[in-house]
């Protein structure tokens, strides 16, 4: 592995003279092949450029840093790790930030759009739920999963709003409940979609 490490460092630093960003954008099995290192990549790293880079520069890059990542890489555990990394390390977001800002675009901008598409049908909520099970309700995030709202989910969201979030009594409901109550608690789309 030491020889492979030296060969990869030679390729990146001496032959190609690549920066870290170049590595993230351009590395591929084809680059190793063109530079007579295809056999090394196949035998030692199962044709994974990421594994070769990790061997040469341990801990410097995350697999999802690379523009080209195999769809086979993604599973629920790697997705959980990547989502936690995105929220806690890269963005340093609080729970409130997640509730206000998370979107498919955030995953896309941070090289996790493929993961979101492959495992979560482009649903940021499903990725967040995988990383932080039970921590957030779907309606607390800026957009709910496609086809989420039905009478059962609306019932659950309304009970959550009244009993858990607002902790209102029957009298409070009679006196205070308005359209604004739903708007301020990210449930306007539910009202529009199901209750006109």
Structure description:
The protein has 196 residues and is mostly helical. The chain has 14 helices and no strands. It has helices spanning 2-15, 20-26, 29-34, 38-45, 49-56, 76-90, 95-101, 104-109, 113-120, 124-131, 151-165, 170-176, 179-184, 188-195. α1 (2-15) crosses α5 and α6 (76-90) packs across α10. The radius of gyration is 23 Å and the shape is elongated. The relative contact order is 0.07. The mean pLDDT is 92.
Descriptive labels:
about 200 residues; mainly alpha; 14 helices; about 65% helix; about 0% strand
Largest sheet: none
**What is the ordering of alpha helices and beta strands?**
HHHHHHHHHHHHHH
What is Rg?
23 Å
Percentage of residues in strands: under 5%
Shape designation: elongated
Number of helices: 14
For the termini, the CA-CA separation is 64 Å
Mean pLDDT: 92
Q: What structural class do helix, strand and pairing data support?
A: mainly alpha
Number of strands: 0
Helical content stands at: 55-70%
Stretches where pLDDT is under 50 for at least 5 consecutive residues are: none
């Amino acid at each position: 592995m030491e020889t492979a490490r030296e060969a990869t460092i030679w390729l990146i630093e001496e032959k190609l003279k690549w920066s870290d960003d170049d590595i993230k954008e351009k590395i591929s099995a084809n680059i190793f092949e063109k530079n007579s290192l295809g056999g090394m990549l196949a035998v030692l790293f199962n044709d994974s450029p990421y594994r070769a880079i990790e061997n040469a520069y341990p801990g410097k890059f995350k697999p999802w840093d690379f523009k080209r990542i195999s769809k086979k890489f993604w599973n629920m555990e790697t997705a959980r790790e990547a989502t936690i990394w995105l929220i806690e390390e890269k963005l340093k977001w609080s729970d409130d930030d997640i509730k206000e800002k998370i979107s498919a675009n955030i995953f896309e901008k941070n090289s996790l759009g493929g993961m979101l598409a492959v495992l979560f049908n482009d649903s940021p909520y499903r990725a967040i739920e995988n990383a932080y099970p039970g921590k957030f309700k779907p309606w607390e995030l800026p957009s709910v999963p496609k086809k989420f709202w039905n009478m059962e989910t609306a019932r659950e969201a309304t009970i959550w709003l009244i009993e858990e979030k607002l902790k209102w009594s029957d009298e409070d409901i009679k006196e205070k409940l308005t359209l604004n109550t739903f708007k301020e608690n990210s449930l306007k789309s539910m009202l529009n979609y199901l209750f006109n």
